[in-house]
From TrEMBL:
Residue segments, region Disordered: 1-33
A Gene Ontology cellular-component term: plasma membrane
Main subcellular location of this protein, as a coarse class: membrane
Protein's UniProt keywords contain Transport: yes
Name recorded for this polypeptide: Phosphate import ATP-binding protein PstB 3
Listed GO MF terms: ATP binding; ATP hydrolysis activity; phosphate transmembrane transporter activity
Lineage, highest ranks first: Bacteria, Pseudomonadati, Planctomycetota, Planctomycetia, Planctomycetales
Amino acid sequence: MASTPSVKKIMQPSEKATSGYSSAPMVRPSIPEGKSMRTADELAQATEKISVRDLSFYYSDNRALTDISLSIPERCVTAFIGPSGCGKSTFLRCLNRMNDMIEGTRVEGKILLEGQDIYSSKTDIVTLRKRIGMVFQKSTPFPKSIFDNVSFGPKIAGIKKKKDLYEIVERSLQRSALWDEVKDRLSESALNLSGGQQQRLCIARALANDPDILLMDEPASALDPASTARIEDLIFELKEQYTIVIVTHNMQQAARVSDQAAFFYQGLLVESGATEELFTNPKKQQTEDYITGRFG
Ligand SMILES: Nc1ncnc2c1ncn2[C@@H]1O[C@H](COP(=O)(O)OP(=O)(O)OP(=O)(O)O)[C@@H](O)[C@H]1O
């Protein structure tokens, strides 16, 4: 007989003594001025790219996500925030079915991509993962040339002509803001690039598959401040063309790059909304406590 999944409860602020609360001064992340961040009204009017409905996710008998419902607007940046272990990465991986690769996992509920349930038996996973590219925390270039790294996906997809591949490589590297730095050394090993360049190469590799959604799991957490700033600028530029979902521990980063933010805690979506509002006037005390650094 299957055992009952464990259900985690939300910690109340009154339990702060044992829940990672800090006595450090509260610091609210500042919303940068002059950046074209979508307002709540604009988000409400944006086309819905992904609709998550009552999603629960299990690692064997352990429920890691409970009844998540969230709308992800097209051509906007949505940031998932929350303390370690709250389920941000698990949720991100649900969006392109990367969790399918982990044995014993199970999903309840629906994720609709432009109205089509990605967990339907009719979904072709290869096509889905081409449409929804992913960039990880640690850059993972193959030990091959810069050109081969970026052209890898298109080659697998059957594109053979050198000229076509070159065009894709050039376009992808331009979009990932790396072209000018590498155009004269495309045949050099990707492993010779700096950490920040390698991460932009991985973004180019994802873009080469011509996705319309990019999932990014802590894409800048291993980088120095200058490389982080480049990735953040890039995310801001890419949202003109792509729907972007980013997991970040860094509140300032979420405030700088995202239009919408979703705060998770212990597998629950506590609150989501326009970043500007969530960071200045959250509806829930828990959100306020987290974004001002009182716990987590
Ligand atoms: N492969 C796995 N097998 C079993 N349990 C897992 C697996 N990956 C994550 N979990 C569990 O699921 C829960 C959510 O983890 P997840 O990595 O999604 O959280 P997170 O918010 O992304 O954390 P972090 O910010 O530390 O990366 C945790 O309890 C974690 O232990």
